[in-house]
Amino acid sequence: MADNPMLKFVRVGQDYPAKRPAGERSADFGEIARKYEMVKAEEQASRCSQCGVPYCSTHCPLHNHIPDWLRLTAEGRLREAYELSNATSTMPEICGRICPQDRLCEGNCVIEFSGHGAVTIGSVEKFITDTAWAEGWVEPIRPLPDRGQSVGIIGAGPAGLTAAELLRARGYEVHVYDRHDRAGGLLTYGIPGFKLEKPVVMRRVARLVEAGIRFHMGFEVGRDAGMAELRERHDALLIATGVYKPRAIKAPGVGSDGVVDALDYLIASNRKSFGDEVPAFEDGSLNAAGRNVVVIGGGDTAMDCVRTAIRQGAKSVKCLYRRDRANMPGSQREVANAEEEGVEFVWLSAPEAFEADGEGGRVSAVRATKMRLGQPDASGRRAPEPDPGSEFRLEADLVVKALGFDPEDLPRAFGVDELSVTRWGTLRVDHKTMQTSLEGVFAAGDIVRGASLVVWAIRDGRDVADRMHAFLKAKAGAAREKVAA
């Protein structure tokens, strides 16, 4: 066993890439973690126990070949590790940055169960593909011969981009339609640079453009073309719009100036990082500089907002969440990062009303009440309920609502009443074919499963590409038989 490059977890400790000091990193939007050196990546990969039944792969939505590329990394065979990583994921370096590994692969690592600390899977995954880009190992997409069929994809987020890449590689003409001016969806405009620097996303998009995928940006279905026209234009369509409708708070004063939606706030910040002109940022409407900020919510979007506010120079930043730390849906790593950077968490608290300076004036405070956890609700988590007589007040001149997202009314927006939806507003699909109620119109990602993780969107994009390929082959075969007859 002396020459075995693996199984070193007993004598080699868990060691994530060093984070930049909180005071340094909170002054910019650069990624907070430093990069592994090659020797460190090999060392950390060598901690893998090479399980016979790898729970890390089982709990990865993409079922990445994690133990295999960890072994290749430990052996210094980095190009092979990249090729294996790339075989199951269209965006491994993005997943390595933003996946909640503590809830997925690393959270189910056998080494973690043994008390030695999980293998640092996400950090190694990021290192592998970042190295591949630097060394020129990321090859262009080489499409198969033109099949003479066209695919339209509505939505340029991770599900849409994954399907676009895989369908283009199979020889289809692919057109992507998106209402924003840059592709990437939430990867581009929803996730801050300190978690995902934008050149990482843009180089993926550029690779798709170089492969011949046509992007139609600033395009809204129902305004620039109807669904009927797009169905005529393409042999198959994919709806991968994601879910962008913010969940509302019902409380007096919620319409006051300075009470804003999380996505509006994050988009403004990300646009500034691109160097765009953002009037709502310049006039202070979506800028936390010098303000007392309260963010309401406990998911990853709330963590993005509080940490963005710190970087914008907020006077104070508080996160108001109705459950306790153990029951919050966001990544515990993100909570720890936020606390290091100066965010104050107000646990077991919920807003009751928003005070403003005069009617329709600027918000000046949040009136809140303490909560206590009662019996489990339908989700299995203990339901929060108000604790009578525990009201308190927080000064705030910028309040960010980060309570999650619901689907928009796509049948109305797209002008197709026959597009069937579930009672939650997500698109109804046949889960075997991934087709909607419209023949040849498929759907994937959050618009089907509800607000979820980027890695699940990539998985759905991969799956729907297979289903669309089968549909298009059958369609082409039927057309040939008709001509022959």
Summarize the structure.
This protein is an alpha/beta fold and 485 residues long. Helices cover 36% and strands 17% of the residues.
Features:
485 residues; FAD/NAD(P)-binding domain; five-stranded parallel β-sheet; 15 strands; 36% helix; globular; glutamate synthase (NADPH) activity
Fold and architecture overview:
This protein has 19 helices and 15 strands. The N and C termini lie far apart (67 Å). 36% of the residues lie in helices and 17% in strands. The protein has three domains: 114 residues, Fumarate Reductase Iron-sulfur Protein, Chain B, domain 2 (Orthogonal Bundle), CATH 1.10.1060.10; 172 residues, FAD/NAD(P)-binding domain; 154 residues, FAD/NAD(P)-binding domain (3-Layer(bba) Sandwich), CATH 3.50.50. Helix 2 crosses helix 4 and helix 13 packs across helix 15.
The CATH superfamily title of the largest domain? FAD/NAD(P)-binding domain
Count of folded domains: 3
- Strand order, main sheet: write it out: 3-2-1-4-15
Radius of gyration: 24 Å
How many helical stretches? 19
Any idea what the shape is?
globular
Summarize the amount of helix as a percent range.
25-40%
CATH domain class name of the largest domain: Alpha Beta
* Beta fraction: 15-25%
Q: For the residues shown, what is the average pLDDT?
A: 95
Structural class: alpha/beta
**At the third CATH level, what is the topology name of the largest domain?**
FAD/NAD(P)-binding domain
CATH architecture field of the largest domain: 3-Layer(bba) Sandwich
**How many DSSP E strands?**
15
State the separation between the terminal residues, measured CA to CA: 67 Å
Low-pLDDT windows of residues: none
- Describe the sheet with the most strands: 5 strands, parallel
Organism: Edaphosphingomonas haloaromaticamans
Domain Dihydroprymidine dehydrogenase: 26-136
Domain FAD/NAD(P)-binding: 151-461
Protein name: Glutamate synthase [NADPH] small chain
